[in-house]
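Sequence in, structure out.
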Amino acid sequence: MKSSKDIKKEIHEYIDRIDDEETLWMVHEDVLAYLKKEKPEKEEEDYLTEEQEKQLDEAIRQANAGEFVTEEEYLKATSRWRTK
């Protein structure tokens, strides 16, 4: 039977072999969900990773600066995709 140390080492090796960022995020979310089961409930905003918080802050900054596409612009642009 493997020791906890050996199992952790093996898991680290698996993670180190993953090149796909989407897969890494899925593993990250699964581990985070497991760890949260062991801790008392936190505020909802504490559930965001540091990277997610940065992305949210950037999205808010862009919206406040008017750097977005309106629904009308989006529909006009995507309507051309459907005709091809």
